[in-house]
């Protein structure tokens, strides 16, 4: 180790940035509901109906990433293990599992719709799960920051990032592609980024960096490359930093 910021530390800072973005209610743990909430925030900001295929695809992409992260955090070295919230194998002391909080440990009631800037009516999709631990079959439990960061690091180490983020990236692009031409214009991009809290100026900077072939539009491949760049490139500035709003 040398002094200063190592590559690992720089990547950890990026993953922690993502954790804070995903922890929509700010309670220090990320849940399936947090992932749903981000998807719902974007679709509603863009006035896409909740039951539209594009909205469903975005939620499915978010769920895919959530379940992948849980599996990565939960699996330990063997790649298998009890689901978050099951205590059957408690006591084996795997570090990867230490940050997973069982559903019964999360007080779901607190701040149900408070942190993500959507009107009170949003409780329908994300906030109606009821008391923690009640009949949730998919993605139950929660990830602490440490578990979330460890899961992303493991995905990177194992080459699993593309699969983890792929469906979400594709659905995100399809959602904001308002004119349906298969690419994202600057106007389409800016609308989506502003909906997620970025400034228009930041969006323009990100767009320019992401449009690597310079044709004035973002393809799925360009977007996907930028997101992978975010999770794998320690040094700023990068297109991935810009699109995901990380400015160390
Ligand atoms: Ca378009
Ligand atoms: Ca392009």
Quickly describe the structure.
The protein contains 10 helices and 3 strands. It has helices spanning 7-22, 32-45, 53-75, 123-126, 145-158, 161-176, 186-195, 200-210, 220-232, 239-243, and strands at residues 29-31, 100-101, 142-144.
Question: Which key features would you list for this structure?
Answer:
single chain, 248 residues, Recoverin, domain 1
Topology:
Layout: H1 7-22, E1 29-31, H2 32-45, H3 53-75, E2 100-101, H4 123-126, E3 142-144, H5 145-158, H6 161-176, H7 186-195, H8 200-210, H9 220-232, H10 239-243
Antiparallel strand pairs: 1-3, 2-3
Helix pairs in contact: 1-5, 2-3, 3-5, 3-6, 6-9, 7-8
One calcium ion binds next to loops.
Q: What would you say this structure looks like, in words?
A:
- With 248 residues, this protein is mainly α.
- The chain has 2 domains: 1-111 and 129-157, no CATH class; 177-243, Orthogonal Bundle (Recoverin, domain 1).
- It is 51% helix and 3% strand.
- The chain has 10 helices and 3 strands; from the N terminus they run αβααβαβαααααα.
- Strands 1-3-2 form a 3-stranded antiparallel sheet.
- The model is unreliable at 77-99 and 102-139 (pLDDT under 50).
- One calcium ion binds at residues 211, 213, 215, 217-219, 222.
- One calcium ion (CA) binds at residues 211, 213, 215, 217-219, 222.
């Amino acid at each position: 180790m040398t002094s200063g910021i190592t590559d690992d530390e720089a990547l950890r800072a990026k993953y922690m940035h993502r954790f804070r973005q995903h922890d929509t209610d700010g309670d220090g743990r990320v849940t399936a509901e947090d992932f749903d909430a981000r998807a719902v925030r974007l679709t509603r900001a863009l006035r896409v109906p909740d039951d539209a295929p594009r909205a469903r695809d975005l939620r499915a992409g978010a769920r895919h990433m959530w379940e992948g992260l849980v599996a990565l955090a939960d699996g330990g070295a063997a790649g298998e293990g009890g689901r978050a919230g099951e205590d059957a194998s408690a006591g084996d002391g795997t570090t990867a599992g230490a940050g997973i909080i069982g559903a019964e440990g999360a007080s779901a009631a607190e701040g149900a719709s408070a942190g993500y800037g959507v009107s009170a009516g949003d409780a329908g999709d994300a906030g109606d799960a009821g008391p923690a631990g009640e009949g949730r079959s998919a993605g139950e439990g929660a990830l602490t920051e440490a578990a979330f960061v460890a899961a992303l690091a493991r995905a990177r180490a194992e080459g699993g990032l593309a699969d983890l983020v792929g469906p979400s990236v594709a659905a995100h692009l399809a959602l904001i592609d308002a004119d349906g031409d298969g690419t994202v214009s600057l106007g389409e991009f800016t609308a989506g980024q502003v909906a997620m809290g970025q400034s228009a100026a930041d969006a323009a900077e990100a767009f320019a960096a992401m449009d690597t072939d310079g044709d004035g539009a973002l393809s799925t491949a360009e977007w996907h490359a930028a997101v992978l760049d975010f999770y794998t490139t320690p040094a700023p500035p990068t297109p991935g930093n810009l699109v995901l709003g990380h400015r160390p």
